[in-house]
Amino acid sequence: MDTRKSITDAMWLTFQPLFLSAVGLPATAYIIRSMGALGYGQWAIGTTLVGTVSVLASLGLRPLFVRRVAQELDVARKQMPYQFGLRGLLAMGAISVALILCVVLQYSSVVLLCTAITACGLLLTTLGGVIDDVLSGLQRFRTVAMINLTSGIVLTLLSVVAAWYGYGPIGIALAYFTGPFTSITILIVIAKRYNLPIEIRWSIRHFRDLLMDSRMVGFGFIIATIRDRVEHLLVPKLVGITEFGYFVAGTILADRLTIIPSGLYGAFFPLIARTHKNTPKIASVHVSHLIITTLIVCIPISLLIISLARPISIILFNKNYDICREIIQITMLSLPFYGFMVCMGTSLQAINAHNVWARISIISSLVSLLVSITLIQQYGLTGACISWVMRPVIGVFLFLPVFRRMMPSVLSQIPIFRIIICTLITAASLWAAPLWVSSKMTLNVPLTITFNSFLALVVYISVLFSLQLINVSQLKSLIGRH
C-alpha cells in the first residue's frame, strides 16, 4: 500500500514538471530562435553562475530537514524559524559570490544584470524551500506539484511575452524571476493554512548545530554542483558564448528530464526514512521498487529523445542544427545512469548514512571534475557532451560497492538482465520502425514521427509485460489507488 501511494505521489511530482516541460518546450524553442545563440548564451551564463553557487544557500540542510519532518514533525516545526534564518543568510552569501564571479570573469554588463536578477530569484527560492521541505516531509506532494505548475505557467507565459517584444536576455531574466516570486507567495498562504511558523530567528548556536550536522552532506553537494556545472563554466570561456548557446539548448532535455528520477525519489524518500527507522527490511523493498520504477521510466524516454534528436534540433535552430543534434544524442544517454545513481545516493541519505553518501559523492565529483576538464580541453563541445554522460557513470560505479554493502538485499531484487533485454528490443524497434513505415505508407514528417514513437511505445509496454517487469495486478492496484 505504501509503495503504491509513493508511486502515485511520484506521478504528481514527475508528470507535473513533465507536462510543464512539454508545454514549455515550444516556448523555449521560440525564445531560442528569437534571441539567437548569442543572446541565449548571455542569459544562460547568468543562470549558470547562480545555479553553481545555489548549493551554498542550503549546504546539505534540505535532505536532513525533510528526513526530520518525516520522523519527528514537532522537532522540525521548532526548527523552521532557524531554517529560514540560516538559509536566508547563506543565500545572501551565495548571491555575493555569484556577482563577484561575474565581475572576475569579465562578463558584459548584460550578463551581470541577468546574474543579479536571477540571484534575487535564488533568495526567494531558498526561503520558499523551507516550506516546500515541510510539505514534502508530510508527503503533501500534490500540493507541491500544483504550486510548481502554477509558478511554471506564469514564468513560461511571461518569458514568451518578453521574447515576443524583443526584450532580450534581461527581459527573459525578469520573466523567469516571476517563477520563484509566484511560488513563495503561494507557499506562504499554504503554510498559514497548516499553521506552520513563518518567522525568522537568529541563533549562532542553532546555526552551528545545523551546519555541523550537515557539513559532510553540504561539502558533498558543493563538489557535486561544481562537477555538474563544469561544462557550463568552461565551454563559454574555452569555446565561445555562441557555441555555449548551442550547448545549453542541446542539453535542455537531458537537464530537465532529471525531474523524473527527482520526482520518484522525492516521493519515496520520506517513506524510506520512516520505515527504515522501525523495519529496515521493508525499507529495502521500497528502495528496490524505487530503482526499478526509475529505470523502466527513464530508459524509454532516453531512447525516444535520441531518436528524435534531429527534428528537435531543427525546431531549435534553423542553422547549424547538426551541432545541437549531436549534443542531444550524446547527453541523453546520461538519464538512466543518473537515475540509478540518484536512487542509490538518496537512499543512503534516507537511512541516516548521509555522511557515507557525502564521502563517496566527494570522491565521485573530484574524479568526474578531472575527467570533464580533460575532455573539454581536448575535444571542445564533443568533450563537454561526453563528460555530461561520464558523470553519472562514474557515480554509479563508485556508489555501487558501498550501496551493496549497506543494503545487501536491494540489488538482488532488481531484474537488471530483463531490463537490459527490454532496452535492446526497444532500441531496435526505434531503428526499425521508420524503415517499416516508409515501406508501407507515405506520411508527412510530423505524422511519421508520431507513428514511429507510438509503435516503439507499444513494443516497450508489450516487452515490459512479457518479461514480467510489471504485471496486470500491479497496474490495476496502482490505478485503483490513484
Compact description:
It is built from 18 helices and no strands.
Topology:
Elements: H1 2-53, H2 61-71, H3 73-104, H4 109-137, H5 141-164, H6 168-193, H7 204-238, H8 241-250, H9 252-256, H10 259-278, H11 280-307, H12 309-316, H13 321-331, H14 334-350, H15 354-406, H16 416-440, H17 445-466, H18 472-481
Helix pairs in contact: 1-3, 1-4, 1-5, 1-6, 1-7, 1-8, 1-10, 2-3, 2-4, 2-10, 3-4, 4-6, 5-6, 7-8, 7-15, 8-13, 10-11, 10-14, 11-14, 11-16, 12-13, 13-15, 14-15, 16-17
Polypeptide structure, described:
- With 482 residues, the protein is mainly alpha-helical.
- It has 2 domains: 2-414, no CATH class; 427-482, no CATH class.
- It contains 18 helices and no strands.
- It is globular.
Labels describing this entry:
single chain; about 475 residues; mainly alpha; 2 domains; 18 helices; about 0% strand; disordered C terminus
**Given the structure, what is the number of helices?**
18
Give the helix proportion (percent range): over 70%
Round the Cα radius of gyration to an integer and report it. Answer: 22 Å
Shape: globular
